[in-house]
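Title: [Solved] MFS transporter 3D structure

Original question kept below for reference.
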Amino acid sequence: MKDEQHNFKQWIALTAMSLGVFMGLLDVTVVNVALPTIVRDFNTTFTDLQWVLNAYTLVYAVTLLIMSKLGDMYGRKKIFLGSLILFAVASAVNGMASSLLILDIGRGIQAIGGAGMMSLSMALVASNFSGQARGLALGTLGSVIAVSTASGPLIGGYLVEHFGWPAIFYVNVPVAVIAVILTALYVKETPSYGQQQRIDLAGMGLSAASLFALIYGLILKESHPHWSWFDLHISGLLLSGLILLLLFIWVERHVENPMVDLTMFKRRHFVGIVIVAFALGAGTYAYNAFLTALMQNYIGYSALQTGIRQLTLSIWGLVLGPVAGILSTRYSQKWMISFSMLIGGLGLLLIALVTGPKVNFSDLWPGMVLLGIAGGLVNPLLNTAGMAGVQASEMGMASGLLNVFRQIGTTVGVVVLGLVQDQQYENYLHRHFQQIEAPQQALTAIKNALITAGPFSGHSIAFSTRLKQTDFAQIVQQIVVKAYTNSMIAVSLTAAAIVIIGGISAAVLLHNHAETPKKHS
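Solution (posted by the thread starter after getting help):
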């Protein structure tokens, strides 16, 4: 009877942690759908609104490791609870925001809560469960990660369409209240492993500064694709980030109680795990943004219609996560991760094969299914494999590092895939605009407008009322659509290469059966 009651409490605890993870990751993507409505309500531009996205992305990435370390030192449940409360308060402020500045600040504060929930949930699950139940629990958490990331457009589209953009923030409040109550009652606290230690303020400051400089540099490059990598704004930030990272490594090697135990990176298995996490972010999470744009901007689906079709990707995480968690305790995680990544690469290759000017969902869904199966399997397997061989006192930091590499991978992927798309798109326009028989001055102006707008927005220019009045409108439209689909093929092939490299890295670096965590008194 006691065992049954204990098991019940464990699964209620898992529910609480899953709710936190779901909210934290959902808010990374859900805002994208609401941007056009927010632009109208605040009477602003998409450029000014960019910080609603960037504030969350930057602060989230910068604070992941800090929240992980604080959880390890002072108790993960305490920091997780504080993060939930902070996230709920910031969400309410965002919903009531009367200006863009308040919304930007609220998003940054919200990201601190999101980072705490995300970085500590995995470590809390690992410490609240043991044996085969741990594999199932981590697998379930992996399902939540996959579903929350992919379902943003669907949930966001529904809320914005029926209740307005503030609803995407207000909905977090009751969910967070439930999660706080369940966490307080059912989640077991972990020991305060470093409560008597001095906080590594230098390490925390340098890690935050280096991540900020590196990620903001990449965001600038994404926002200004025609700026050179040697532009002082971009190169200055990236170089500063690398210098700060080297300083961080030097400090961590010499301080008595380092924020990050760098010996974790001497373990081949752990290095393999973070490489796979990076590849997953760069090759699949980043690719979702381009797939969404293809469906909305070129095929013509609404945000809600796109979200429904993207269930083809997300539903597999819900179905396969617990299964993968159970299988990971019986079979080689190494080969399961490697094979799953290769399935994802195959899905991306299949999407590249069918992409063309007349592509629609009936062409895309087989590749999307394979990509969804890969994500549904890899996420929970990464969670389980990432905790293997990690000391109990370092589980929070291991979880934080896994999430940091996944987040950096997503940011790098968006930039790299975006540059590939821009280059292919522009090259096609340059080559084929020369073949149009029309006044060169007008063609040059149209081509420059298309290039400035970029692949995502080129379709709206090509099919605008003004351009339709010209004699050469149809040929321009054909060229723009073909330029975009060619660029999407290149994006799909690049993403496939990243994911396949991640699968090969898993096969080379991961252990078949990673060592079990060391016991701590």
